[in-house]
Amino acid sequence: xxxxxxxxxxxxxxxxxxxxxxxxxxxxxxxxxxxxxxxxxxxxxxxxxxxxxxxxxxxxxxxxxxxxxxxxxxxxxxxxxxxxxxxxxxxxxxxxxxxxxxxxxxxxxxxxxxxxxxxxxxxxxxxxxxxxxxxxxxxxxxxxxxxxxxxxxxxxxxxxxxxxxxxxxxxxxxxxxxxxxxxxxxxxxxxxxxxxxxxxxxxxxxxxxxxxxxxxxxxxxxxxxxxxxxxxxxxxxxxxxxxxxxxxxxxxxxxxxxxxxxxxxxxxxxxxxxxxxxxxxxxxxxxxxxxxxxxxxxxxxxxxxxxxxxxxxxxxxxxxxxxxxxxxxxxxxxxxxxxxxxxxxxxxxxxxxxxxxxxxxxxxxxxxxxxxxxxxxxxxxxxxxxxxxxxxxxxxxxxxxxxxxxxxxxxxxxxxxxxxxxxxxxxxxxxxxxxxxxxxx
Length: 441
Ligand code: SAH
Ligand code: SF4
Ligand code: F3S
Description:
Elements: E1 2-8, H1 12-27, E2 30-32, E3 41-46, H2 53-62, H3 65-70, E4 75-79, H4 80-86, H5 88-93, E5 99-101, H6 109-119, E6 123-125, H7 131-137, E7 148-152, E8 154-155, H8 166-170, E9 174-175, H9 178-190, E10 195-199, H10 216-224, E11 231-235, H11 244-252, E12 259-261, H12 269-274, H13 281-294, E13 299-306, H14 313-326, E14 330-335, H15 353-376, E15 382-390, E16 398-401, E17 407-410, E18 420-428, E19 432-437
Parallel strand pairs: 1-2, 1-3, 3-4, 4-5, 5-6, 7-10, 10-11, 12-13, 13-14, 17-19
Antiparallel strand pairs: 8-9, 15-16, 15-18, 16-17, 18-19
Helix pairs in contact: 10-11, 11-13, 14-15
The structure holds S-adenosyl-L-homocysteine, iron/sulfur cluster and FE3-S4 cluster.
């Protein structure tokens, strides 16, 4: 039997794509294995959102060279966002690379692999596809043993935030037909799934560009109405597309978890404008206020970029102020890194790397204090936890999540998997909770 080794980097989009890659390769007789050493096919599914993504991928590929030197029949391929960005250039640079496939070309992988098997000819396919073709290629999420599932509702992004490579490597935004999404979720729920997360780069603009399609809020209402679905989440949201109708959902839909990831990126209006984000700090704070009004126990998380070109101490202070005001449960903080083809890459930037790092550290320290305060509130309370499976610690424990998406590890019987059980939070760790099943379960 032939085997493949697949490594996935980046966001949930890539995780979902890797599931599709796995299914497609199984369809042509390849089975997954956990290390590259004995594989017939090695694939990297790459991310190019930050840092020196391209260089990292080239470095990573180097690990496979000695294996290929020993076994020249090994096929090596790169997919995902770096592949989309670099294309043929990767084949030119890496002599032992066989395949490059872009973000719209995953469905071509089986044929590409078979072509290399038969002819030993190298190939790169990174053309973007038109809307209709892409809509027909949306991968159907089929049943697994999982209790929770991600369901892709859209692909691509049209926002062109000035720092971001995603619109360049994922192409234009398309929304999947709501009937198809609802049918898929009904199928997942029938097979035992209890929680779904609706997935897209910018889910709350769902349907906006498709004639006759329902709005994102209406989609949430419809998903909430599916019997047997216990919990509903979504990611990621763009603050400019948070509508009053969507905010209301947090007050009315029983399955919608009191949690939202709402990337703010900066608290400075000047920087937000340079970032092409389409909102100012006051707009953002107004939406946060309304969310908290309809759902008082909502917890927010965010993404923040530190050191965007031209960011002054005053701009940065505005970010710290906003972070303090919102009180995020968690924040993913990133040092700005220039990405090719993006507008910000050519903006003047006089701030030193050292200054940026100092700002980053100050923000991190502030956020760690705020996060600790918020998660500490859970201590000694009994929270409903959806049990997902055996704990990653491998110590016979179970793990699940609270409605706020916090991981809880606790002792319990396997038969609890898939159920929502009351768990007393006995210890708050930095990224998870330790709990004990409450007596009444
Ligand atoms: N579509 C999502 C996520 C995009 S990428 C959204 O809009 O929220 C995830 C995060 O990476 C972004 O929110 C941003 O904070 C960060 N990011 C993107 N490009 C970056 C860059 N060039 N430098 C540093 N951080 C970046
Ligand atoms: Fe990138 Fe902005 Fe699109 Fe998010 S919304 S993927 S940050 S361009
Ligand atoms: Fe990275 Fe591509 Fe996702 S650049 S963040 S894997 S869309």
